[in-house]
Design brief:
Blueprint: E1 12-13, E2 31-32
Length: about 80
């Protein structure tokens, strides 16, 4: 997604957001729908351990995950 400067800063993913993450220009600093559906997580136990996978598939650059809070809502 994006090009140079493709930073995610204060980015929120919401399945009901108006815009898909693929429609946003970098840096991604807004509320976006995810590239993949999050509905399978509805009803999941928020205390359960889940893996987090972060991939930077761009050629010739790298990335760092600095902070990753998760917030759940009942909606």
């Amino acid at each position: 997604m994006g090009a140079n400067g493709e930073h995610f800063s204060n980015t929120t993913f919401d399945i009901e957001a108006d815009h898909a993450i693929s429609q946003g220009p970098p840096p991604f600093e807004d509320i976006f729908r995810t590239a993949q559906d999050l509905k399978p997580f509805r009803g999941a136990d928020p205390n359960e351990t889940c893996p987090l996978e972060v991939r930077d598939i761009g050629y010739g650059d790298g990335g760092t995950l600095n902070f990753h809070p998760l917030q759940f809502s009942e909606n």
